[in-house]
Amino acid sequence: FLQFVFHTYTTGFTLLNGNGTTKVKEYPLQQKQISYGLGAISYAACIGALPLVFMNRYTLKSSLTQLVVKKLLPAPLLGLMSAFTVAVVRSPEFENGIEVMDRNGKVVGVSQKAGEKAVKETALSRAVLFGTTFFLPALLTYFVERAKFAKTPRALASVRMFMITSVLAGMLPVSLSMFPQCGEIKRADLEPEILSSTEETELFYNRGI
């Protein structure tokens, strides 16, 4: 359930902050994207919970299994599923294309390749944000438990929450700055119809968040 809530929030955020190309708005996207989003959320939540379900189903209770399944595996899996939901919800951007502009902001065309690049960059930044945010605190908490710095479960929970908040606060600007909001793409990498409409060597697009 918590996995479902988390991916619902991030998917809704992604849906609202994608590229707003005019041509894309001509397509009946709202129902399509919502359907894609619900499917992606359900899939991501099930995959995220699968290791724990598998461990409980087969009663794998060794300390190594507990460490891997409960501490180490959820973070990269969460990062991967976060990237997956971004790619699914924003798939119309690389199916239909997004606007590319010259240095003066003049729109010179709509490019599927620019849309693909924008979605890939956003998915990667989202994976880094949530993967790191949940991996580092889990790893640090493990060492805190081993060193017995936190004497009570309540103290350990407070330490874990502090670590998650600190890492998230540090990783948020890092993930947002991994790729510029106004992305660049070389003219040679674009479609032939755009090549013939401008002499600019580099064009620009809105990446979204």
From TrEMBL:
Similarity section: Belongs to the sideroflexin family.
Species name: Dromas ardeola
Name of the protein: SFXN4 protein
InterPro entries according to UniProt: Mtc
GO annotation (BP), single: mitochondrial transmembrane transport
Keywords carried by this UniProt record: Amino-acid transport, Membrane, Mitochondrion, Transmembrane, Transmembrane helix, Transport
Membrane topology: Multi-pass membrane protein
Domain of life, source organism: Eukaryota
Gene Ontology CC entries for this record: mitochondrial inner membrane
Transmembrane segments: 34-55, 67-89, 123-144, 156-179
A family per Pfam: SFXNs
GO molecular function: monoatomic ion transmembrane transporter activity
Locations listed in the record: Mitochondrion membrane
